[in-house]
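Please complete every field before forwarding. Incomplete forms are returned to the sender.

SECTION A: IDENTIFIERS
Entry label: holo-133
Bound molecule: zinc ion
Molecule representation: SMILES string

SECTION B: INPUTS
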Amino acid sequence: MAQIDRNTPRRPLDTILAADIGPDIVGATPYGETPVGPSRNDSLLMWSDGFDPFGAAKVSPWVTTRHGDGIHMLTLAGGVRDVHTKDVLRAPVQLRYPRCTRGGCTLCTYLKVFHYSFAKDQLFWWTGPVPPD
Ligand SMILES: [Zn+2]
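SECTION C: PREDICTED COMPLEX
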């Protein structure tokens, strides 16, 4: 765990704590397939569900749109933010995003793992050094 009491991120106002998740719909999705997962798994945030809107695999997106063109996210500092996810859903999941790196994203800078980027809305999975195990 992050042990945020001892390993405070550099940007707690912009660090994601919780978010609306999907899939929300039963039946056809905008991509034509029936949602198959991933499961809600107790609202555990995932960095990437492997969804590729242009690939052969028919997997429904986990990141969703629920409120207009996005979702709501709760930050570590307690704020609730509107996040625009339509573009996030359509972009390939990457290891590194320039805007995300500039914002101090730990995943881009230190861990180099595939993740969605919400840097366009000034939100990050973690900012600061990697917490020790
Ligand atoms: Zn990043």
